[in-house]
Design a protein that fits this description.
The chain is an alpha/beta fold. Helices cover 21% and strands 17% of the residues. It is built from 12 helices and 19 strands. The longest helix is centred in the middle third of the chain and has 21 residues.
């Protein structure tokens, strides 16, 4: 596939920062290995933190030397590197940040992600060649704020996660074309507005706004009546108490077409504290989904050749048909919901078929969406087990009143198009990493994110059992691995491959060997080298995973 950049950014000058001709998949990395893994599995850009002033202190993060090596590696593969500098700094940190920005400017990175306006102005003065992105913690919720930040030099806004799909379209329609709109598509969500939280600081002294969040919101809580000290009552009907503030994870895999159509130019995967496997699996999944979007929307062919310039489907106020389309959209405010499916209601339902793009405004059809019935067919051939069923979010209708618009205001409409259809294996990928209950966040007003109040653990139905160290054609094919978990003869495994569906493979009844070439009955020592027959050529560092015998509630 072609790169998301017209040319790789091989030097640190703004002149090389080209306008993207396809949506960007932005992956997280907590260390140098994670950065390279993200690039290997198709990330168009990687965001990561340094040793200071980032919003994640738990990951090891990257040194200045790591940034230099990581930037070279990314640029060689047509990808970019963004560094988070998004803390809310205190007075005694201002000069240190200035010095650190100067050091970052010499490493070859491409952009800084900032929240504080003082940090933004400092970056302008100290490292003018770095592109500036405004963090979600800035809470950008409208085009006025985005335009003001553009005037101050920002070339991207990471929208507040509280925005719905209509807000994304309205912002996209009213900001400069060369300003990027970055939206979260996958990962953990915060119970506080745009991540600005004092809960952890209050309970533990660990400042969440300085990357030290203790995730107090996910702890177990009970209530105590004032005159009955020591008598604890669960908030929900459960013996284990209640996880009152425990927000669900986001998963927008089945709605990538809606988000890109609505003007998102960068799709952000959350998870700088996650494993290399998580980064690989989710980066590969969302990059494949974007590739399918580009092909099915007619922008590229299967070989990645450009057929027509990429453009979202948002109708700008300057477009001649804006007024007519907006009036239709005003009569049908739930049009975008015609593209929404019931993927997170336990058993996925069938997606409605949207009408083709109209040749004229008068042919714009009415919404044809309908709720899925209990007997609706599943998106995957495998029926989910009880725990998997429970680990999917039910979408609940909100009780919010209908939006009242001022006179003269028109929402930016979007040109209708048939939904993008993703293959079943791709729809299954989000369930193959550890996750909390999934939701679609706040993008759909009638299906907002909720809390899982009866547990805070991760759901895990798959585990990593090894990583590929090498493959040899000798003896009909043999793969050497570093073991992570037990592997037995006859076990069904999957190799996670970049840009492809996972390779399914059943281990043979014999042929397993240790590092010295001795036959072994099973691979049962973690962090040891083993090999087994495999006629399929598999790449180095590919993760090998297998379904757990019993789904568990913990991270990998």
């Amino acid at each position: 596939m072609t790169s998301s950049m017209e040319t790789p950014n091989t030097s640190n000058t703004l002149a090389t920062l080209r306008r993207r001709h396809r949506p960007e998949v932005l992956a997280p990395a907590g260390n140098l290995r994670g950065l390279k893994t993200a690039v290997d599995y198709g990330a168009d850009a990687v965001y990561c933190g340094g040793k200071a002033f980032g919003m994640r202190s738990a990951p090891k993060n990257l040194s200045l030397e790591d940034f230099e090596e990581g930037s070279r590696y990314a640029h060689e593969h047509g990808a970019r590197v963004y560094v988070t500098l998004n803390v809310l700094p205190r007075n005694n940190e201002v000069e240190s940040i200035r010095e650190y920005i100067g050091q970052l400017g010499d490493t070859g990175i491409d952009a800084l992600i900032v929240t504080d306006i003082g940090v933004m102005m400092t970056a302008h003065a100290v490292a003018p060649n770095l592109e500036l992105h405004v963090s979600t913690q800035a809470g950008v919720t409208n085009y006025g704020a985005a335009n003001a930040l553009y005037e101050l030099g920002a070339r991207r806004v990471v929208l507040a996660r509280e925005m719905d799909m209509q807000a994304v379209r309205d912002i996209r329609a009213r900001i400069p074309e060369d300003m990027d709109v970055e939206c979260f598509v996958h990962g953990a969500m915060c119970m506080a507005f745009s991540g600005r939280c004092l809960f952890s600081n209050y309970l533990t002294g660990r400042d969440g706004n300085h990357g030290e969040c203790a995730q107090s919101c996910r702890w177990k809580y009970s209530i105590v009546e004032e005159k009955r000290p020591g008598e604890y009552y669960p908030i929900e009907q459960t013996e284990e108490g209640a996880y009152l503030f425990n927000s669900q994870d986001m998963c927008m895999m089945e709605h990538i077409d809606d988000l890109i159509d609505s003007g998102a130019t960068s799709l952000k995967i959350e998870g700088r504290s996650k494993s290399a496997y998580y980064i690989a699996a989710m980066t590969n999944a969302y990059k494949t989904a974007v590739n399918e979007y580009m092909i099915q929307r007619g922008f590229e062919d299967r070989d990645g050749n450009v057929l027509k310039p990429f453009r979202d489907r948002v109708i700008r106020p300057s477009d001649p048909d804006f007024q007519a389309f907006a009036e239709v959209a005003a009569r049908e405010p739930d049009r975008i919901m015609a593209h929404a499916d019931e993927a997170f209601s336990g058993v996925p339902g069938e997606r409605p078929t949207a009408a083709p793009e109209p040749s004229d405004v008068s042919s714009v059809p009415s919404s044809t969406s309908s709720p899925a019935s209990p007997s609706a067919s599943a998106a995957s051939s495998a029926e989910p087990d009880d725990l998997s069923y429970h680990a999917r979010s039910t979408r609940r209708k909100s009780n919010t009143a209908a939006e009242i618009l001022p006179d003269g205001w028109l929402h930016a409409p979007v040109r209708p198009a048939p939904p993008v259809t993703l293959p079943d294996w791709l729809l299954d990928e989000p369930d193959k990493v550890a996750h909390r209950d999934y939701s679609t966040g706040f993008y759909y007003p009638e299906r907002k994110v909720t809390q899982n109040t009866n547990r805070s653990a991760y759901f895990r139905a798959w585990m990593v059992v090894g990583e590929v160290l090498g493959w040899s054609a000798e003896e009909g094919g043999r793969v050497t691995i570093m073991s992570r978990n037990k592997i037995e003869p006859g076990q069904h495994v999957e190799f996670l491959l970049p840009g492809e569906p996972p390779l399914e493979y059943d281990l043979p009844a014999d042929g397993l060997r240790d590092a010295d070439g001795n036959w072994v009955a099973a691979i049962n020592n973690p962090a040891h080298v083993f090999s087994f027959p495999c006629p399929h050529r598999v790449p180095v560092n590919a993760a090998i995973r297998s379904r757990t015998k019993r789904p568990t509630l913990k991270a990998e």
